[in-house]
Amino acid sequence: MRIYACADYRTMSRQAANIISAQVIFKPDCILGLATGSTPIGTYAQLVEWYKKGDLSFAEVRSVNLDEYLGLAPDHIQSYRYFMQKNLFDHVDIKPENTNVPNGLAEDPEAECRRYDRIIEGFGGVDLQLLGMGHNGHIGFNEPSNAFPTDTHVVELTHSTIEANKRFFASEADVPHKALTMGVRSILQAKAVLMVVSGADKAEVVHKAFCGPVTPEVPASILQLHRNVILVGDMEALHLLPKEVLHLCD
Fold first, then answer.
1. Are strands 153-156 and 62-65 parallel, antiparallel or unpaired?
2. DSSP assignment, residue 170?
3. Across the strands, what pairs with 116?
4. Cα–Cα distance, 39 to 135 (Å, whole number)
5. I want to staple 166 with a disulfide (CB 3.0 to 4.6 A). Which of 172, 221, 233, 236 is the partner?
């Protein structure tokens, strides 16, 4: 595992974008696993900037997103498909047919989960999986539980996750209580995992995830078992980790 400690959010975003762009340049037809949430927004903005400068092309890239709210249409302003269009897809040359997000309006959510797993398997897995981490240690919408869920599945969101996400909706009552999420198996099968974390409010869970025991009560802790994890965070989020394991961003 390699940990990059950056001075601030902007530097963190640029460092993460560097890693993603290197993957795309090295393998133009790579499979990118993508994440939503506030933390990766700066990373996507940096990638868009480099694309507009002609430094980067997504023309051959295929992508799979981690998750989607159950019950939200793709054009709903709070859907994760909408988020990806607004923050990345609409601003680069990735082909629409090469972007994959779970269908939140699927009539049969369980069948949609199986379909999504077949897509990932058909790609031969993910080359680089981008992750954020929730305050309770969730990755994707794999919430704390008594076991690690393996495949794409329907999940009941915890109260803490609903609380964290209600700021994006008109009221807490409008926040969906279920989501479709890629399972831990698919995440662990990615050739490389890039996690981005920001803010002092994430410091405790970062320490639990990477310095504590591997436990489904802190889902991100499973990444301790992955052979190629890159953690990029600002100093506020990483300040509880041992200083000797940190690599300072340029």
1. unpaired
2. S
3. none
4. 12
5. 172
Six token digits for residue 148: 């690690």
Structure tokens at 46: 């940096």
* Secondary structure letter of residue 114 according to DSSP: H
In the 8-state DSSP scheme, what is residue 157? P
Beta strand ranges found along 132-204 (DSSP E): 153-156, 178-181, 192-197
3-state DSSP assignment of residue 129 = strand
What whole-number distance in Å separates Cα of residue 22 and Cα of residue 228?
15
User: Which of 40, 78, 80, 207 is closest to 135 using CA atoms?
Assistant: 207
Residue 234 has which token pair?
């600002």
The 8-class DSSP code of residue 158 comes to P
Kindly report the CATH number assigned to the domain that includes residue 40. Answer: 3.40.50.1360
pLDDT tens string, the chain, 250 residues long: the values are: 999 999 999 999 999 999 999 999 999 999 999 999 999 999 999 999 999 999 999 999 999 999 999 999 999 999 999 999 999 999 999 999 999 999 999 999 999 999 999 999 999 999 999 999 999 999 999 999 999 989 999 999 888 788 877 877 877 788 888 999 999 999 999 999 999 999 999 999 999 999 999 999 999 999 999 999 999 999 999 999 999 999 998 7
Domain count across the chain: 1
Residues catalogued as catalytic: 67, 136, 138, 143
Which range marks the domain in which residue 141 is found? Answer: 2-248
- Asked if residues 59 and 92 have their Cβ atoms less than 8 Å apart, the reply is no
The answer to whether the beta carbons of residues 135 and 205 sit under 8 Å apart is yes
What is the phi/psi pair of residue 110, to 5°? -65, -40
Which residue type occupies 166? Answer: K
